[in-house]
Amino acid sequence: MWSTLTWKGRLVVSLRHRPGRTGATTFTTIDAFTHRLTGLTPEDVVKINVFLTDMDDFEEMNRVYASRFVEPFPARTTIGVASLPLGSNIEIDLIAQRR
Q: Does residue 34 contact residue 40 with C-beta atoms inside 8 Å?
């Protein structure tokens, strides 16, 4: 697993690769980003990009996404890819804005 966290003024960008179950990875990535790493809340997230090596995992990822955010949901792009670094099956990057 590896992750990066970059602040640019009031914006923060985080990128995380992690091998493991898609749902658990989605949950821990969002949780770590919003609570542990930045002190922000899920309501501060404005955009999420998700890359999956198996689009059959979309439903599991989407269930967790829907449980962690409320309407209006952050904008999201989900893309199926052939492979990811470090053998990961999911990559998530989030963009949030500090209020």
A: yes
DSSP symbol at 68? H
pLDDT digits (tens, 9 = 90+) for 39-95: 788 888 999 999 999 999 999 999 999 999 999 999 999 999 999 888 888 888 888
CA terminus-to-terminus distance, the chain: 29
Lookup: tokens for 70: 């409320």
What are residue 95's phi and psi, to 5 degrees?
-125, 130
User: Which structure tokens are listed for 56?
Assistant: 């059959």
Higher model confidence: residue 94 or residue 99? 94
Evaluate whether 2 touches 16 at the Cβ level (below 8 Å): yes
Please give the domain boundaries of the chain with CATH numbers for all domains: 2-97 (3.30.1330.40)
**Cβ-proximal residues to 77 (8 Å cutoff; 6+ apart), any chain:** 48, 49, 50
Q: Does the model's pTM come out above 0.85?
A: no
